Model the fold of this input.
Amino acid sequence: MAPKDLFPAATGPAKSLAEAHKDAQPLVLYAGWFCPFVQRVWLTLEEKKIPYQYIEVNPYDKPASLLRLNPRGLVPTLQVRSPTSPDNPQPLYESNVVCEYLEEAYPDHGPRLQPADPYLKAKCRIWMDFVSTRIIPGFHRFLQWQPSERAPTVDGVRGEFLGYLKQFAGAMAPEGEGPWFLGGGLSLVDLVLAPWAVRLWVLDHYKEGGLGIPKGEEDDGEWRRWKIWAKAVEGRKSVVETLSERDKYLPIYQE
Done:
């Protein structure tokens, strides 16, 4: 994608939220409105109601303040105050790591996003890893698929991706317990996948045959459970407020 094709700042609901968090705070989120990994962290901050400053980063013109913290200049980067040296801020990056840090460092803010039960907490980490190592790579293989003699068919990459979504849905609590992965309570598992769940429309836009989630008689238990979860995600206040206008995302995912 050429620099001119990337809209420079958040729009729509995300613009209002970013502007509401422009004032200095001990926690600083270096962000990119377009980035689903940033949205993971942004969702966690919003759900836990942790004060933070939002700084929009142009990936083609990264600010010196970010590069001092993270020489690679990647977003999300979270600037935190060191407990031993408050005047020497420290960086945290890798979105899942940052989300878990926020949960552990701010136990009195907002809802708990990891269960207290050691088994359930471990289960959540397994499925957070599944999102990162299976679902997200599958999303991008499907999106980037181009016909060639050596490549699998589009139906093959679609089937692989849908298989991962179905596995994820099959691991959720029964639908009668609530819409979220663990049932009645939102958790980090939900938040780490939510940014991709609300971008699935991109596959309908760009790929012949679209996403291809079964409908009607083929809508079995796992897919019904997925749709309940996805509807809850799409309607969640934090998700809605961290999204920009749809048309601004299209150049990012264009082949």
Remarks:
- Residues 202 and 253 are 7 Å apart (CA to CA).
